[in-house]
Amino acid sequence: MWDFEHPPLDAPLALRYRIDRMSPSECAARLASGAADIGLIPIAALATTPGLRILPGCTIASKGRVRSLRLVRRAAQPLAALRSVAADTASRTTLAYARILLHKWGNPAVPFLPAAAGLDAMLQLADAAILIGDPALMALEERANRLERTGEELVYHDLAEEWRALTGLPLVSAVWGIAPRNSAGAPGLVDHGGETWDSIAHDFIQSRNHGLENIDALVTEWSAKLPIPAETIRAYLTTNIHYVLDEECLEGMRGFFRMAAELGVLPEYNP
Prior knowledge:
Elements: H1 2-5, H2 10-14, H3 24-33, E1 38-42, H4 44-48, E2 53-62, E3 69-74, E4 85-87, H5 92-104, E5 112-114, H6 119-125, E6 128-132, H7 134-141, H8 143-150, E7 154-158, H9 159-167, E8 171-178, H10 194-212, H11 215-223, H12 230-240, E9 242-244, H13 247-262
Parallel strand pairs: 4-5, 4-6
Antiparallel strand pairs: 1-8, 2-8, 2-9, 3-6, 3-7
Helix pairs in contact: 5-9, 11-12
């Protein structure tokens, strides 16, 4: 979002776009209802909302360890023996990846219990917890402190690493989605031809590229907002997250949707 938030392009872009901030699942709901034209959506929404399309070029993915998508369990309790999982419901895609992995780990029907993000409270509620985003990063930072405080040994599964080990493919979390054709919230946009969408895609790709050129500024900005060391944030932005919707990521998406449909986790969808 660099160009949308920083000069010199924030002012001209503000004439073309109105930005609202919300969770990924809320973004998907806005597109489905026609209340928004473009949204950064969990890829699972593509299978559950007919007519959604992908704005090409950008993604949020990981080709190795992601750090911010975690299934945390007590070390004494094997994955196949989990009786319940407390789940942050901010992203349906992460829950779908976790469900596929649990199928492969021999525990396909373990219930997911909706819960607010917070490791201690989640483990009071269930045998394991799924953490997404900042709460996952902060749980990793607090790992040693929590062990000293509670004496309870936990296993922190990185879902992107587990997915890569299972499939050999990247874990793709999100893409920019385009609202279905003729949605009430997108008057005329889809009727302007490919040039209009090419121009919009260019704005988002250029913003991504400018953000990657300003990692130092982003590290400074976010280290002031989060109780996470600056070097951890730098590594996350430069190593853990992959931002280009390349052919390997598209193959990762195909593998995800194929397995999700085969296991009944999501409806069939072919990206």
